[in-house]
Design goal:
histidine kinase, 22% strand, five-stranded antiparallel β-sheet, ATP-binding, elongated, phosphoprotein, alpha/beta, five-stranded parallel β-sheet, ATP binding, HisK_dim/P_sf
């Protein structure tokens, strides 16, 4: 370290240097005893500390102190003098001295420690100044406005972003008007002193009128606190005009989509009703023709009538699914739950789909639990769920393939799993398999008479029962599995 020692008494300079050397072993010192030497020292600079006498023939310690501080504001200056009285000490400290040590036998030993502490304080001050400068640069670079104000709305300080958001050019221009409109906590200022931490916070969105008359939406975050006995408001202001516009556009778009969805549901309901009306007369007419021509030797008419009947039944089922999906979406389906045996719903579903399975020469394996698995459900709708899943499996499993349905009880749930050895489900399709009108291989689905609504209806009905349905597949040609989980009833049937 390098010190400057000023004293016109050589013995006192030597004593000061010896004392300092014990505390600073690698100390380098420049000794000054006249004005010329002091001027040369000022020109050299680079000192870590200055130790100066108070009374010298060519100057005094106060003048030395003032010259040093004017050239090196952060350099510690310690007065080491025989003029030891309170008046001198007070004058020196007022002038900016970092410490004052008398040359008395009992006090001079404090000189090294006084210099050490002065250097440490100066170092800490420089670091703090640098931190404050870095913080100020960061604050100035923020896109968020930062301000400090009184509870009455008087602006004390702010960053450039604050001025930009409010449409002001300078701090003085911003101070010309009260910013009380930004503050929501002034009424709490008197209560802040009574809070546990002496502070209160708030956040709100408001529309701010700028200097040019334009308006912006701002999000203001405030903190009222007491600092050095003074109540101040620290705050952040963020311009959220673009966000508000996006949110408003999103709300408008959401309403439009909701209206479109409602119109879609209404259209589906109307379409299903309109399609359903002619089906019964067509089916009746085909049946009558088939019976009336049964005695004819030409079987082509009878076969044609049977084809019409099968296709009408298929179309009727598809229309019913479409109508049910529309009803569920509009909240028009009401369940009639009762305590039932899950095996009953599975058995009824199997009987409904058996003709299709047999026509395609598929093997259907049914496994039911040895004891009744009780659920509280609408038997008709639950049967419809399993029938739709089995029908779906039969459609997408080639002739001679195998379909399985297994019902078990697992903890607090009952689980029904439908598996097949069919065409499987593409991995990209799995996340959307239960969405309305979602299909895999469209040509196959259309050939089998599918609209892509059956699985949507399954999911809706299962969820109405408080359950969940999932789909799995190893990929194309690997078959698929659908698992339905329903809460088991804790009430035993009587």
């Amino acid at each position: 370290m390098r010190f400057l020692v000023l004293d016109d008494n050589p013995d006192d300079r030597l004593m000061a240097i010896r004392l300092l050397s014990h505390e600073f072993p690698e100390l380098e010192t420049d000794e000054v005893f006249d004005r010329a030497g002091f001027e040369r020292a000022l020109a050299r600079g680079g000192y870590d500390a200055v130790v100066t006498d108070y009374m010298m023939q060519w100057t005094d310690g106060i003048q030395v102190l003032q010259l040093v501080k004017s050239q090196w504001p952060d350099c510690p200056v310690v007065l080491f003098t025989g003029s030891g009285n309170e008046e001198v000490a007070v004058e020196a400290m007022k002038a900016g001295a970092d410490d004052y040590v008398a040359k008395s036998p009992h006090r001079m030993v404090r000189l090294p420690l006084a210099v050490r502490h002065a250097i440490e304080r100066a170092t800490a001050k420089r670091r703090l100044t640098q931190v404050e400068a870095d913080l100020q640069q960061l604050t100035d670079a923020l896109d968020v406005g930062v301000f400090r104000a009184t509870p009455e709305g008087e602006l004390l300080s702010c960053n450039p972003a604050f001025l930009r958001i409010l449409g002001r050019s300078t701090l003085e221009e911003a101070r010309a008007e009260s910013i009380e409109c930004l503050l929501s906590l002034p009424e709490q200022a008197d209560k802040v002193r009574e809070t546990e931490r002496g502070r209160a916070t708030a956040k709100r969105d408001l529309e701010v009128r700028r200097a040019d008359g334009s308006r912006v939406w701002a999000r203001v975050s405030e903190r009222v606190r007491v600092e050095d006995g003074r109540t101040v408001v620290d705050g952040l202001v963020e311009d959220i005009s673009e966000r508000r516009a996006l949110e408003e556009g999103l709300r408008t778009r959401t309403l439009e989509l909701q209206e479109a969805d409602q119109r879609k549901d209404e259209f589906l309901a109307m379409l299903a009703h309109e399609l359903r009306n002619p089906l019964a007369p067509i089916l009746n007419a085909a049946t009558i023709v088939r019976y009336k021509t049964a005695s004819l030797s030409d079987t082509r008419v009878r076969d044609a009538c049977m084809i019409i009947e099968r296709q009408v039944m298929t179309l009727s089922r598809l229309v019913d699914d479409l109508l049910d999906v529309s009803r569920v979406s509009q909240g028009k389906i009401m369940l009639h739950p009762e305590l039932i045996d899950l095996g009953v719903a599975v058995t009824q579903a199997v009987e409904m789909v058996r003709p299709l399975v047999e026509a395609r020469r598929q093997k259907l394996v049914v496994q039911l639990p040895p004891a009744p698995a009780r659920v509280r459900a609408d038997l008709t709708r639950l049967t419809q769920v399993f029938a739709n899943l089995l029908n779906n499996a039969a459609k997408f499993t080639p002739q001679g393939g195998q379909i399985g349905i297994t019902a078990t009880q697992s903890g607090e749930d009952v689980v029904v799993r439908i598996t097949d050895t069919g065409m499987g489900i593409n991995a990209a399709l799995l996340p959307r398999i239960f969405d309305l009108f979602t299909q895999g291989d469209v040509s196959i689905d259309r050939a089998q008479g599918g609209l892509g609504v059956g699985l949507t209806l399954v999911k809706q009905l299962v969820e109405m029962h408080g359950g969940a349905v999932t789909a799995e597949s190893e990929g194309a040609g690997q078959g698929s599995a659908f698992t339905v989980r329903l809460p088991a009833s804790k009430v035993e049937a009587r």
